[in-house]
Design brief:
about 425 residues, alpha/beta, TIM Barrel, 8-stranded mixed sheet, about 30% helix
Length: about 425
């Protein structure tokens, strides 16, 4: 059984206007439309007041039950399969090594980020617990049930990490503390380390001190946009959303101070109108602070204000993936790289033999995020197909095979002599 959504927007070979990147002037979100009064702030759900009964599968009922954190949280489809909450499998991988937990309220997220399936404007057509997010459904599960299951597994748990994902909601800060304490009271953070994907807009420095004191190991900020202009356009005043670039950096700097070196980072989405120099300069800034970048490939999420726009061209994405890996893990600096007149990375500051070795290793093209238990440059948060379909993978949730690497090299324009990529050959590869 597959839980992947039917594709509505496939990545093309080119970006907007036939370019090999998504230019700023083309990546303009739709303006959000007014929400009917009866649908605002979870109005339909609250009026019905249907009590939850165990696990809720999105779109499984006519009306979403009145579920609320901290008693209930949502989890990614991959995490639900791994935990045994849902049946199914993911192409090429044994689901996920990270248990992603998303706070949930009938009111939903009060932000309106243009690329996000959880955005406030979707109140008009879909209740919060039924919304897709990074391309998949998120079933809602009692927090106590999750803790009981992971605690009973002990050292045999398949999870290398748990991550609490906050949303923009008045109760989000307090409920994150409650969920974290409920977890660490039963599960040793040394067995399953905890990350926080934060909501800086509602947070203060003291909140970070509290979370760190309760056992959270890594703190991340979903900066997402690579420049202040794109940030404001996609998740600030440009879309009637409350976030600000300055506040996000304030909390990120607090995380550096409180969580320490290599224990904080920022999410960055590639392909929303920034140049490759923009995004790689941001990666360098994070490295210089002592943190890491976690990269996402823009995919037009169905129902979002950007679902009419092109996905990130694969050649742009591969260049950025490779360059980001070199900056984060091979001590290459952005100043050593060369960029063309539109800011695209063309020449990397590394000997050719070392560059070839990095490409063949394949780690640069895997999903980036908080580390698991194998190595620092291999993420526990593999987010299977969160930014692409299996037919045209952006972030690999598994180790790329030879056929995958030939495709990657083809996308980079760096094919080896005598090893040309054959269209579709990677689909036929037998995987564990």
């Amino acid at each position: 059984m597959s839980w992947l959504k039917r594709e509505v927007a496939l990545p093309s070979a080119q970006g907007a206007n036939g370019l090999d990147f998504n230019a700023l002037e083309a990546m303009i979100p739709r303006a959000p439309e007014p929400t009917p009064h009866e649908a605002k702030n979870g109005g339909r759900v609250k009026l019905a007041n249907v009590p939850p009964e165990g696990v809720y599968l999105p779109n499984n009922n006519r009306l979403v039950p009145h579920m609320r954190s901290p008693e209930y949280v949502q989890m990614s489809t991959a995490a639900a399969i791994t935990l045994g909450i849902m049946a199914g499998k993911m192409h090429g991988c044994s689901c996920t090594r990270c248990l992603n937990l998303l706070l949930s309220y009938p009111e939903g997220c009060r932000a309106n980020c243009a690329y996000c399936g959880l955005a406030r404007h979707r109140e008009a057509d879909r209740d919060y617990a039924d919304r897709n997010f990074i391309r998949v459904d998120w079933p809602a599960v009692p927090m106590a049930q999750i803790v009981d299951k992971v605690a009973s597994d002990g050292d045999k748990t398949p999870f290398h990490r748990m991550c609490i994902s906050m949303i923009t909601h008045p109760n989000s800060d307090a409920d994150t503390v409650t969920v974290l304490k409920q977890w660490t009271d039963r599960i040793d953070p040394a067995t399953v380390p905890v990350s926080i994907l934060s909501n800086p807009t509602t947070m203060s420095r003291s909140d970070l001190v509290t979370l760190h004191g309760l056992g959270a190991e890594i703190f991340t900020v979903a900066l997402d946009a690579a420049t202040p202009e794109i940030f404001d356009r996609t998740r600030g005043k440009g879309v009637q959303s409350p976030h600000s670039w300055a506040k996000y950096w304030e909390i990120l700097e607090d995380a550096r101070d409180i969580f320490g070196n290599q224990k904080f980072g920022a999410h960055i989405i590639v392909g929303m109108g920034e140049t490759e120099h923009d995004v790689l300069a941001l990666v360098q800034r994070l490295v210089d602070m002592g943190g890491h970048s976690h990269m996402f490939c823009f995919f037009p999420e169905k129902g979002s204000l950007m679902d009419h726009l092109p996905a990130t061209p694969r050649d742009q994405w591969r260049r950025v993936q490779l360059a980001r890996y070199l900056i984060d893990y091979r001590a290459v600096r952005v100043e050593q790289m060369r960029f063309d007149e539109v800011g695209d990375a063309r020449i990397l500051g590394i000997p050719e033999a070392e560059l070839e070795e990095v490409i063949d290793q394949g780690l640069a093209f895997r999903t980036s995020g908080c580390p698991g238990k194998f190595r620092e440059d291999l993420s526990a948060c593999d987010r299977p197909y969160g930014d692409s379909p299996p037919s045209n993978i952006a972030s690999y949730p598994f180790q790329p095979a030879s056929a995958d690497l030939r495709k990657i090299r083809h996308q980079l324009g760096m094919e080896k002599p005598g090893e040309a990529y054959v269209e579709g050959e990677e689909i036929e590869v037998e995987r564990p």
